[in-house]
Amino acid sequence: MSIEGQKVIIVGGSSGMGLALAGRLLEEGASVTIAGRGQEKLATACRHLGDHPKHRTHVVDIGREEEVAALFRECGPVDHIVSTAAEIEGAYQLLSSLELAAAEKVVQSKLYGPLLLAKYGASQLPSSGSITYTSGIAAYRPLARGSMVAAVNAALEGLVRALAVELAPIRVNAVSPGWVDTPIWSFVAGDAKQARLDAMAQRLPVGRVGQPEDMADAIRFLIGNGFTTGITLHVEGGHRLV
Questions:
Q1: For 20-74, what is each residue's pLDDT tens digit?
Q2: Which residues in 108-147 are b (16+ Cβ under 10 Å) and which e?
């Protein structure tokens, strides 16, 4: 499916996978709105994407219903909605040390937020439109200290299947990344980020960890394939095999 001339909203598009996807879609002639909570990060993303006439930004906290409603009032109608947003700072803790406030942020960004994007975005999509979310390998290979992230990723995949039925013929899917070299790893591993990624690369059948561009390819497939809905597309280098 050609995406030239279509409008796409990418929540979480100011860094990592979302930013890689934004760059790719702009190259293909789409109009892209990257949305996120921080104006400074959005401005940095704009500088990264360059002086492009078809991209804009919107500040939104997708855990706040009134802000999501405003996003679509101001940016709709659109052809596709993507969310790569994840607020996991403070969530990778042993259960005995996990603070409820950190757990609630994960749920807001990766479950309630996607739910609200569908609630207010579906009416702005054409019948050929799509919604794509990002779950993750934690639902299948959880780390110690990662109980909340594992639980929310699994819940999101259940939401995808339910929304694919309720919102049909709008397509709803998820990409489930493995270990991908993005800024989020600073919250997971801190100063040990590179050592952890290098160790996983040696374990994976593909011999490397993922890059944001790998995930952008997968999301682009789900946006463009009109016969795919209600699935979780695993893009994890064979992680579930090891």
A1: 999 999 999 999 999 999 899 899 998 889 878 899 999 999 999 999 999 999 9
A2: bbbbbbbbbbbebbbebbeeebbbbbbbbbbbbebeeebb
The more confident residue out of 241 and 145 is 241
Short-list 88, 82, 93, 89, CA closest to 35? 82
pLDDT tens digit sequence for 178-217: 999 987 777 677 778 889 999 999 999 999 999 999 999 9
With a threshold of 0.85, does the pTM exceed it?
A: yes
Instruction: Report the side by side order of strands in the sheet with 130-134.
Output: 55-59, 31-36, 7-11, 80-83, 130-134, 171-177, 232-235
Q: Look at residue 165 in the predicted model and tell me its pLDDT.
A: 98
Other C-beta atoms within 10 Å of 213: how many? 14
How far is it, in rounded angstroms, from Cα 229 to Cα 11? Answer: 20
AA identity, residue 114: P
Nearby residues of 35 by Cβ (< 8 Å), 6 or more positions away: 9, 10, 11, 12, 13, 42, 57, 58, 59, 60, 62, 71, 75
Residue reference for tokens 């819940």 = 155
Contacts of 48 (CB under 8 A, 6+ apart): 19, 23
- The rounded distance, in Å, linking the Cα atoms of 68 and 62 is 6
